[in-house]
Amino acid sequence: MTIANQSGDRSGGEPAQGEGAVPIEFRLDPGSGVPTYLQLVHQVEHALRLGRLAIGDKLPTVKATVESLAINPNTVLKAYRELEVRGLAVGRPGQGTFVAGTLGQVAAADLAALRATLLDWLASAEAAGLDHDAIVALFASAAADFRGRRGTEGAA
Amino acid sequence: MTIIESRGLGKRYRRAWALRDCALAVPGGYVVALVGSNGAGKTTLLHLAVGLARPTAGQITVLGGESAGSADALDRISFVAQDAPLYRNLPVRDMLQVARNLNRRWDQRYARARLADLGIPLRQKVGRLSGGQQAQLALTVALARRPGLLVLDEPLAMLDPLARHDFMALLMGAVAEYGVSVVLSSHVLAELERVADYLILLARGQVQVAGEVEDLLARHRWLTGPAGETDRQAERMCVVRARRAGAESHLLVRVTAPLSPAPPGWESQSVGLEELVLAYLREPGASALPGPAAVRSDSAGAGR
User: Fold this and answer.
1) Partner residue opposite A67 with nearest CB, options B172, B190, B258
2) Which of A4, B90, B135, B225 is most buried, with most CB under 10 Å away?
3) Candidates 3.40.630, 1.20.1070, 3.30.70, 3.30.2420; correct CATH number of B215-303?
């Protein structure tokens, strides 16, 4: 493992970036149970969906992120690698990591179809005897499981 | 390069062993968290690594085979002790001058730039700085020596939450910029979760857990299932900690394959670093050590 080389590629010798030039400010929710690197990935994805980040935008340097969140540089590198794997970012040696993909809004028709499936499922859950809280608990547990599996696959 | 390597390492103070039979091979480039209950041997291990104590048994090398405490090793290791030792009556500027004169390697530009970033005035007497600023000054001095290995004993103990965050931000910035390897002991588990990517857990003077954090987390799961089946599951896998709540059983288990599915009827959840550490601290008999565990299974195999 060579933190120095990897981070050097992305943060070493870069020109200082003005505060206003960074279009995203990472935050952490330590209580969420979501691994830190995935929180960073999700925040970039979220910003892409909302159009706050566009292709060509530079993501914060590893050093800047590390110094604002007080986290291990490898966590940021892992998040940026994951974004590269997902086709959303590209690292340019000596320059930084840049947005390279978009996440379009889901089409309204698709959303409506998904919603209809979910309503059917809710009806069957109620028929099986689950009350509102039990349904929410079951959904949250399944969603966490799903996300966790995605997380471990991403790490593998 | 291994940053710390020890074999059969032990330290006895008078008649009690503070550290015993300690085998480690910590690769470089990590931020290593050293945790354990009070009296588990953390400070002893750190003192052996930086050459402040001599082993009673076994050996320890640092920075790729340098004997701990040798002149070459001392040149490339910075150590910040628990109370962040500084010359309290000197102004910050003179403190830097002393450090510069005492050290063969010294990066004055780094020290001045960091102190300016941190807003620490050079004319101020060290003793008049806030606790957080004193800790940052001690860390800056340690980093300006441009060490390959930085060893910190309980650096967060005296700091408030904001000072902790700023201290860690300074430290992680140095890791990002220079790739310095770090070993720090701490009781502040929540803070370690964000910074550590290698864990060493000591219990009763012995290494209980040692390994890469990501790997350790992938190899542990919380299983929830019917209490009646607990014993059957315990035979099939390694249970670190078991808790029963009515008809349900919660097991922290070590799995052999990271993605192995939960047994039928059991729910499997991932484990956080803090939970993992707490579970092992509560079960000092449980071991997740790859080294000695392998030796043990070998001897068990020979006996069969």
Assistant:
1) B172
2) B135
3) 3.30.70
Residue B218 contacts A where some CB pair is shorter than 8 Å: yes
CA A79 to each of CA A30, B161, B167: distance values in angstroms, whole numbers, following the listed order: 16, 26, 23
Considering only CB atoms, which chain A residues are within 8 Å of B175? Answer: 3, 66, 72-73
Amino acid in position B38: N
Q: How many domains does chain A fold into? A: 2
User: Rounded to a whole number, what is the distance in angstroms from the first to the last CA of chain A?
Assistant: 16
What distance in Å separates residue B238's CA from the closest CA in chain A?
Answer: 21
Compute CA distances A112 → A50, A115, B296, whole Å. Answer: 19, 5, 59
Other CB atoms closer than 10 Å to residue B92's CB: what's the count?
25
Q: Are residues A46 and A123 in the same domain?
A: no
Q: CA B283 to CA B241: how far, in whole Å?
A: 7
Lowest mean pLDDT among A36-45, A107-116, A131-140, B51-60: A107-116
Provide the whole-model pTM: 0.79
- Residue with more model confidence, A107 or B31: B31
* Total beta-carbon pairs less than 8 A apart between chain A and chain B: 81
| Tens digits of residue pLDDT in B133-174 | 999 999 999 999 999 999 999 998 889 999 999 999 999 999
Q: Which among A3, A68, A156 has the least Cβ separation from residue B29?
A: A3
| pLDDT confidence of residue B52 | 94
Chain A residue with minimal CA distance to B179? A4
DSSP secondary structure of B242-259: EEEETTEEEEEEE-SSTT
CATH ID of B2-204, from 1.10.8.60, 3.40.50.300, 1.20.1090.10, 3.30.300.20: 3.40.50.300
Chain A partners within 8 Å of B197 (Cβ):
72, 74-75
A7 shares a domain with A82 = yes
* CA of B113 vs chain A CAs: smallest distance (Å): 15
